[in-house]
Every structure is written in C-alpha cells, then in structure tokens.
Amino acid sequence: MTQQPSQSPQFFLTAPSPCPYLEGQFERKVFTHLVGDRAPELNDLLTQGGFRRSQNIAYRPACETCRACVSVRILAQEFQPTRNMKRILKRNGDMIGSPHAAEPSTEQYSLFRTYLDARHKKGGMSDMTVLDYAMMVEDTHVDTQIIEYRRRGAGSFVTGRGEGELMAVALTDKMADGLSMVYSFYDPAHEDRSLGTFMILDHIRRAVAAGLPHVYLGYWVNGSRKMAYKVRFKPQEHLGPNGWGRIE
User: Fold this and answer.
1) Could you report the per-residue pLDDT of 137-172, keeping only the tens digit for each?
2) Are 135 and 103 in contact, with CB atoms under 8 Å apart?
3) What is residue 4's predicted lDDT score, i.e. its pLDDT?
4) What mean pLDDT is predicted for residues 87-92?
5) Whole-number Å distance between alpha carbons of 173 and 208
6) Which pTM value belongs to this model?
7) How far is CA 152 from CA 158, 177, 189, 211, in A?
8) How many angstroms separate the CA atoms of 180 and 177, rounded?
9) How far is CA 117 from the centre of its chain?
10) What distance in Å separates the CA atoms of residue 148 and residue 141, rounded to the nearest whole number?
C-alpha cells in the first residue's frame, strides 16, 4: 500500500540573527514552503495570519524578546487620500502602471540595482545578482504580477500602456481578499514624485476597482523610521493577539 504525502504544511524555525530594523535586537522567523496546487489557498490563509511571501517561502517573525513587527493591511474600500496624497496623485498623473506576467527583465534589474545602491546600500539585498533578482520575481506558485510604471505616451491611448523609461516596479500577489505588495522599487532620481507612495495609492485604486477589501503592506516595525510610512494609509488594520484591529 502506497502512503500518500501529507497535505499539511511543515513549519521550520530559523536561528537568531541580527535584526535589520532595530539595533540590538535579534530576529527569528517561522517559515514554510508554498508549492503545489494548494499554494494559492495556503498563501491566502497565511497572509491573513500575518505571514509574508518571499519566492516560494511564507514566513513571519518569531522573535523571542520583541514584538515590534506588526502586519498591516489597508481598508481599500474606505480609504480617503490626504491632501498630500492627492498632490502626489496629481504629480504622477502622467504615469501608467501596466501589469505583466511575473517574468524578470534586464531593464527591471538595472532599475532594481540603481534603487538598492541609492536607498539600501548596506541592506540584506544589496549583493543580489541578476539571477537572484530573477528568482525573486519568477519563483512563485501563486497569482503574481509585475506592474511596470512608465510615463503616458502618445500611443498609450491605444495600447493602455506607458511608454519610455521604466520608472517604478511593483511585484504583487493577487489574493481572494486583496492585493499583497511583495516588493517595490523605483528610480531614486525622481524623488520629487514620491513614487513609493504613488505605487501604494495605485494599488488601493486597483483593489477598489477589483472589489477587493484589502491592500497588504507587510510589516510595520514600531520604532523603525524605514517603516513609518506604512501607517499613513488609513483606515487600516493591524494584526494583534486577538486578530485584526482597526486603526483610524
């Protein structure tokens, strides 16, 4: 008699390592693999439970002495932009985001390297090669897209796509209850456009158009300046010991 493999995911725990966000803290993660036909369903359940996806891995913090990482999701259908966000939308009115299959390109990697060298030179991703980037994009068993942002051109009215240089990119998962922004990057030469904020606002618009209630932003790290921007998009929900709680 042949024994059938278990359908339940197996979870593993990493060894402690220095926290990239809070000095003096050490992080541990619990993780599992997202593979096979059940990967999209499992990714939905785990994301709703505070996990994040990286390639075919779903992980969440399991730190022994710190609870600073908090899962954040925007309530897209109720969201109202602030005055500053309205200015950012107006400033980027000439931009079009075009969704593509999760396939890497040389142009994307060139922008990715420019972004890392300018914004995260000492970060954990700073030494990623073109092959590493390709794996980050295409190693997925869920519904993933690359959204490329370019300026609106004369041909855009026909094609619906932007033209010219690639200015920003978002790697995004579509789930049953929302969009999860896995990773995004942009040209730091256009700092005045606030392209990071613009991409989040564009994802909120996309979620509303698709009738999806949430945009998942990953972890807000209390005490980390790098993550402070995530709490500006309200109303939103934070995942706590008693489930998701609304934050106005």
Assistant:
1) 999 999 999 999 999 876 665 466 777 899 999 999
2) no
3) 43
4) 98
5) 15
6) 0.91
7) 11, 30, 18, 26
8) 10
9) 19
10) 21
In the DSSP assignment, the letter for residue 22 is: S
Residue 25 to residue 221: CA distance in whole angstroms:
12
Joined tokens for residue 22: 């809070």
The residues, ordered by sequence, that sit 6+ positions from 115 with a Cβ below 8 Å of its Cβ are 185, 186, 187, 188
175/220 Cα distance (integer angstroms): 20
Per residue in 37-51, pLDDT (tens digit) is 999 999 999 999 999
* Per-residue exposure over 57-96, b if at least 16 CB sit within 10 Å of its own CB, e if not: bbbbbebeebebbbbbbbbbeebeeeeebeebbeebeebb
| Burial class (CB within 10 angstroms; exposed 0-12, middle 13-18, buried 19+) of 246 | exposed
CA distances 185 to 52, 80, 82, 218, 234, Å, are: 17, 24, 23, 15, 22
Q: Does residue 162 contact residue 153 with C-beta atoms inside 8 Å?
A: yes
